[in-house]
Amino acid sequence: MKFTERTNRQIGTKLCAIALIIFAFAFFRYVSKKAYPSSPNQWVISADEGFGEGSTNFAAGPIVQYQGKLYCSTINENGAEIWEKTSEGDWQKIVDGGFGDKNNIAILRMITYNDFLYAGTLNLNGCQLWRFDGSQWSNALSPEPGPGFGNAHNIAITAMELFEGKLYVGTTNYRLDILLPGSDGADIWCYDGATWTRVALAGFGDNLNAGVTSLKTYNGILYAGTARFKIQVSVIDPENVRVSLVSMGCQLRRKTGNFWTLLAQNGFNDSGNVSVSAMAVYAGKLFLGTANGNLSVTVNIESGEISDISYSSSGLYIYSFDGSQLSQAVGGGFGDANNFAVLDMIPYNSGSENLLLAGCASSVSGGLLMAYNNQRWYAGADPGFGNASNKAVSSLLACGNTVFSGTYNDETGCEVWSGKPPSKPLISSISPSSAPVGTIVTINGTNFGCSREDDSFVSFGGGIASEYVVWNDTTIQAKVPSDATSGDVKVITPYGTSNGITFTVIDKPQISSISPTSGCIGAEVSISGSCFGSEQQTSCVYFGTRKVGAYLSWANNLIKCKVPSGISGQVSVKVITPVGESNSATFKVKPEISAISPTSGTPGTYVTIAGSAFGNSRGSSYVTFGSKKVSTYSSWTDTKLKVKVPSGVSGSTSLKVTTSGGTSNSATFKVKPEISAISPTSGTPGTYVTIAGSAFGNSRGSSYVTFGSKKVSTYSSWTDTKLKIKVPSGVSKGKTTIKVTTSGGTSNGASFTVK
Question: Per-residue pLDDT averaged across 717-736, rounded?
């Protein structure tokens, strides 16, 4: 296998391109497409199709502002270009062909310093640094220290930052040698406007630190993020070699005097983090974005063509650093390992908006612009700004309220988009401002989203609404949830949390007690509780299904009313106000007897009982005469009963009606005794006579038997249905009438002949 200088250089060029996976440019030419779901897009295109030159300008950025104008560089294999945005809004080219050196194929970093615009290049013969005064460009490394800062292996300027009034520049160092690929270690150079000084060399003593890919000042200290990798080459056959870029885990260092202290290493928590590809200061912390992955390709020795690409990544990471502790903010490429690199990060402040923006690269399609509001990450634009060929958001610049974003697109050429990420919602008004649970509340404002997303919602104090009638960008109609509390109403979307508008949840009425807990129709009842309202107005009380018609008083915590007619048994008492319906309390409606007819009679007599709250059907209700239950009911309505006087009762007895609501008042019914037979029917005084019948009573008490007008004085036995008595002396001979008298009255007469 023979390697000519041409072949070695050609393959070395390809190895350099592979190494630039760190910056997520070259790899995109060899990947497929995949669709991503859309997210709100508030962007307009500022430049497209490679600024009119097509795919030769396949990556845009960095983008900077200098002397009131915007400047955007491109990556171009025929020499990088720089474009200036005119006051008319057009873009015009001011640098062509890599400053006259077509080997300057990329400008990876630009910065302003001492009234100059500096642009650092990627050049396989040694990086260059050019500066612009607004009218012409000059080489900032000529004559000293020269291309690559005097070392041709410093092929790219991959970081620039201002610190303590000086310009700091980080390089990527790579040997273009197929036989001995690798790095001598990256450098950091410092420029005070007159002299260049090397302040870090040989990868901080570790030549696996092939690149210083990020420099950032944070809390008065300069921090450096590295790319740490190695290149492995193995021979496949006489015509092809296998080249692999293997991540060795990036590092984070900070400048401490003349030393660079190691703060974190080994890719932090993932050795696949090959580089710290972007850094930004936001919300009082230093944020670091990474490129993650390992790449292997087959290279044809003669042609330099690349094939059989194998790439693996666990997805980009973003970390936050508070000066002492490094914490993971994002892992796994925002949930998709295909999102493998953060190419740029900037803070964005516009009015109430305070965001961190991250431009990302995907190994499939549609590079992401992500926004962070110090609470959550969300999509700041459609993937690829709606163009699947924009495989990365390669550069970002915040210019006033507008963000400019450059893309990587090797199919139709890079693009530049202007706009802003979706804003957090803003509430202008709510109506009504107080309402009970279950009320539909209208919320007016802006930036709610054209339709509700799964992670968009409205909070009512501590409760989250689950029912929405309307949701568009300016209006939401939401139902007050059951767990709502008085406090701020807020709209939460993926783009942030709105301001709060005070909302009062009007509580439903609540019954704590009623007194008494039972009573008849028309009885006065006191209902104690809360949230009844200071006046009755349209509010009301229900006993079961009957609305109260008579109210004695109404206050917020006490209602006095009368039990309405038409109810019976055990019922639920509720208070209903415009806010809602209270809990229920149990009240027992006692039946009440107003009259009976007849008021006396013998067992078997039918008695009509008039009154209230008897119930519309008997069910388990019943009527008693004394302790004896009625067994025969002719009819039963809520106000009238017809029953048969049961056997086994006697004298003056209490008639009562019992229902589930309780037992009624009593009505007095006199059960008259009744003689059915006597034996014998004749006899002389002193003869014992047996009297059969009913309602005599179980004991004699004050009851008695008469023969005509003569009372019996001798009683042998007395039961409710049978008496045995002696015919009294002094009764005149002949026919006489026997009668039984009890507290219930005097019985019918039976004829007896006295001999």
Answer: 94
Question: Alpha-carbon torsion 571, 577, 583, 585, what sign?
Answer: negative
Q: Which 8-state DSSP code applies to residue 149?
A: G
The answer to whether residues 170 and 188 touch, using CB atoms and an 8 Å cutoff, is yes
Residue 247's alpha-carbon distances to 293, 296, 730, in angstroms, are 7, 11, 140
Write down the pTM of the prediction.
Answer: 0.66
Collect contacts of 232-235 with beta carbons under 8 A, ≥24 apart: 233/178, 233/181, 235/1
Q: What is the pLDDT of residue 206?
A: 96
Question: How does pLDDT run across 318-354, given as a tens digit for each residue?
Answer: 999 999 999 999 999 999 999 999 999 999 997 777 8
Could you give the 3-state DSSP secondary structure of residue 508? coil
CA distance 688 to 697: 20
Return d(Cα 390, Cα 719) in angstroms, integer. 113
Say if residue 646 is preceded by a cis peptide, omega within 30 of 0.
no
What confidence score (pLDDT) does residue 41 get?
Answer: 55
Region 197-204: what's the mean pLDDT? 95
CA distances to 288, 317, 363, 372, 553 from 314, rounded to whole Å, are 17, 9, 12, 21, 73
Strands (E), 293-373: 294-300, 306-312, 318-321, 326-330, 339-350, 353-362, 369-372
Distance between CA atoms of 494 and 729, rounded to whole angstroms?
A: 114
CA distance 85 to 389: 24
Contacts of 123 (CB under 8 A, 6+ apart): 98, 101, 103, 104, 105, 147, 148, 155, 156
Instruction: Output the CA angle 656-658-661, nearest 5 degrees.
Output: 135
**Residue 724: enclosing H or E segment and its boundaries?**
strand 722-726
